[in-house]
Write a structure and sequence with these properties.
This protein is mainly α and 149 residues long. It is built from 6 helices and 5 strands; from the N terminus they run E-H-E-H-H-E-H-H-E-E-H. The strands form 2 sheets. Strands 1-2-3 form a 3-stranded parallel sheet, covered by helices on one side. Helix 1 (18-26) links the parallel strand 1 and strand 2 (32-33). Helix 1 packs parallel to helix 3 (43-55). The longest helix has 13 residues, at 43-55. The mean pLDDT is 90.
Amino acid sequence: MARGTTIPIATGERLVTKYEFARVLENRAASILQMQIGRVGGLLEAKKITSMAEAYYAQIAPHLYAGPVIGMANVHLAACSPNFLILESIETWGGFHGKIIKKPVQWEAGYVIPPTEPGLGIELDEDVARAHPYTGSNLHLEMTNKVIQ
């Protein structure tokens, strides 16, 4: 329990509703929320969770397990949240995640610079996506190791 330690407790990457996050906050079970924008219902729901956290003096550190779409949504959430702590990224968005977007993510002194283009500020390269189709059968972050047939 968070009250039993001076170490900040972070949680939330597998929570999916603002009601689950509200319970964490009401019970003072964590001081850092790590919502996954793709799991909680998008940017608007993530912003609601962020605002609830602010009222409890909790910070946010948006979780990232996917690629540049969720990554840029996290950047925008971070940029408009006074209780933002830290941004998770996939290194500096090189490799495949850098190739699948047409314009590279901008960095300066270890900080991501929010894009100014419309929407999330990125454009996917559909030719790169078509050249690398998903061939697996499991969903990402399954709760078990069971193969779906």
